[in-house]
Specification:
By secondary structure, the chain is α+β, with helices and mostly antiparallel strands. It has helices at residues 6-18, 120-132, 142-153, 157-166, 171-181, 201-212, 219-228, 289-309; strands at residues 92-98, 106-110, 246-250, 258-264, 267-273, 279-280, 286-287.
Length: 312
């Protein structure tokens, strides 16, 4: 059977183009460009509302015109870049969880110990407010408010000792009760020397997420602790050097882990290291300041990658 003439082919192509379609093979012709198909409209579920706490949200504002994050942003690698990971690394560790999904905790790296050191002062203050003021910061005396500020901002040992001694009964039981109320079934606080208690970076992240959500003791206590936890200038290293304003550190000396917990961008975070030289702090103990600065910068870069490449 003979094919159609050249003239008939030309007429067919003109009619097809008028209908908005390109014949098969026409896209390969010089100067021809395919008409892109309209992308399908994606229907995304409406996120569930989170309880509103008494303090402003800590989430980073969305930049107008910025791309909508997805589980895999085009151009992002399938795996975390090695330069942003601490998997298999000794001497440094970090943990983080998005504040809108606090059970999604990532922990990487390993350090030589998990003693809380002065990060435990935050827990003492929470237990004090719970047992002596029924979770109402306005019921606390001016003297004790100054003690809470000194404990959280300057890591003052005498201030936290005064608060602990006023907790009725066994202070360790009161502190452990606070932890259990937010789902920490792992950490056990002692009646004294709480800085020696193991408090993992995973559970510290969950504690900070609970603070952000107003769940530690009460919404007013959580907001008060977050607002008071503004370290003095001498302690604004590590997380304080990468934009976190709410954080608390703990340290002792060379060979021990220096650690911090806090809020950074829209994440609850905790970091620790036992690397490098130490710098004497205002309490007479020493901290791995430069190593914590480096670790905090790495964490900030990792969170930026997570937000761009992983977050929905």
């Amino acid at each position: 059977m003979r094919g159609p003439t050249i003239g008939v082919l030309a007429v067919l192509m003109i009619m097809t183009a008028a209908c908005g379609r390109v014949p098969s093979g026409a896209a390969d012709a010089p100067g021809a460009a395919p008409t892109p198909a309209a992308p399908p409209t994606a229907v995304r579920p409406t996120p569930s509302a989170r309880p509103t706490s008494a303090r402003p949200t800590s989430a980073r504002p969305t930049t107008p015109g910025s791309p909508t994050p997805s589980s895999r942003t085009p151009g992002c690698p399938a795996a975390v870049p090695e330069r942003l990971s601490l998997i298999g690394v000794q001497g440094r560790s970090f943990a983080f969880a998005p504040l809108d999904d606090p059970d999604d905790v990532t922990v990487e790296g390993r350090v030589s110990g998990s003693q809380a050191w002065s990060t435990s002062k935050l827990l003492v203050a929470a237990a004090f407010l719970d047992t002596t003021a029924d979770g109402d910061p306005d019921a606390v005396s001016a003297t004790n408010r100054r003690s809470i500020a000194a404990a959280l901002q300057s890591s003052d040992a005498d201030a936290v000792r005064s608060l602990r001694q006023q907790i009725p009964g066994r202070p360790g039981r009161a502190m452990t009760a606070v932890l259990r109320s937010i789902g920490d079934d792992e950490t056990v606080a002692p009646d004294s020397y709480e800085g020696l208690m193991p408090w993992s970076v995973r559970e510290q992240v969950r504690f900070m997420a609970a603070l952000d959500d107003g769940e530690v003791v009460s919404a007013s206590t959580s907001a008060y602790l977050l607002e008071t936890m503004r370290p003095i200038k001498a302690h604004r290293w590590g997380l304080g050097a990468v934009g976190a304003t709410t954080f608390k550190g703990g340290w002792l000396r060379q060979g021990r882990v220096t650690r911090q917990l806090g809020l950074l961008d829209s994440y609850a975070v905790a970091i620790g290291t036992d690397r490098g030289p130490v710098v004497r702090q205002s309490d007479g103990d020493s901290a791995h300041v430069q190593a914590m600065d480096d670790l905090a910068e790495l964490l900030a870069a990792r969170l930026a990658w997570e937000q761009h490449c992983r977050r929905r």
